[in-house]
Amino acid sequence: MRRTLVKWLFATYLLGSGTIWSILILPLFPFVGRNKRYRLAKMWCRAMVSMMRVITGVTCSIEGLEHLPHGPCIVLSRHESTWETLAFMALFPRRISFVFKHDLMKIPFFGCVLRGLDMVSLNRGSIRQAHQAVTRECAARLKKGDVVVIFPEGTRVPHDAPLKLASGGVRLACATKVPVVPIVHDAGKVWPAKGWPDHGGHIRVIVTPCLPLECEVPQELNRMAQAQMDEALAVLR
């Protein structure tokens, strides 16, 4: 009974506050620049992390931030829940741009905020056309100094699922000549791939070292990313 109450209380807070905050900040978007829009959205993400601790008892921490380069980079992240798509903006000191499904832009209010944040949308049509469009958009965000976050597994997976990386992220790195930083976390332990958190726990995010810049073979780069992420995931299991 308590778990059900916690789950729906948090879901109500998240959806309700997200809608209200979107309505409040959207009128400001035409009058503020790209970075200020991001800061406005980041304020809500920080509030979400705090309220998650209050309502559900879930805390979080991030390790290895020193591995993030000072300039633009591509982050390959494990995708286990909705948590990372919200909390990363609160936890990372740098501006991040997610590569997300274009369908999210259809969500009332929230979709308009996403569009205003100037991130990268993936329209799943022709694979070749989608790859070309995402490469072009990501290259533009990297030129602005962003950290581009890609979920190379393509969809949310349970925490104990084997890691299977698609090569799109490393091919983008080879095309743009920027560093690749693999990241893992264990959010799926408390916030499942499908559903809401209903009990306390601690989420750890581990930022692993950059992959070698001199490696320009996507298959080899993907193999190294897989090895680093598997090793870090073993620490979280």
UniProtKB/TrEMBL annotation:
Which positions, given as ranges, span the membrane? 12-33
Write out the pathway annotation from the protein's UniProt entry. Answer: Lipid metabolism
Q: Name one Pfam family in it.
A: Acyltransferase
Task: Provide the Phospholipid/glycerol acyltransferase domain boundaries.
Answer: 73-188
| Source superkingdom | Bacteria
Q: Keywords for this entry?
A: Acyltransferase, Membrane, Transferase, Transmembrane, Transmembrane helix
EC number(s) on record? 2.3.1.51
Provide the GO MF annotations for this entry.
1-acylglycerol-3-phosphate O-acyltransferase activity
The protein depicted here goes by the name 1-acyl-sn-glycerol-3-phosphate acyltransferase
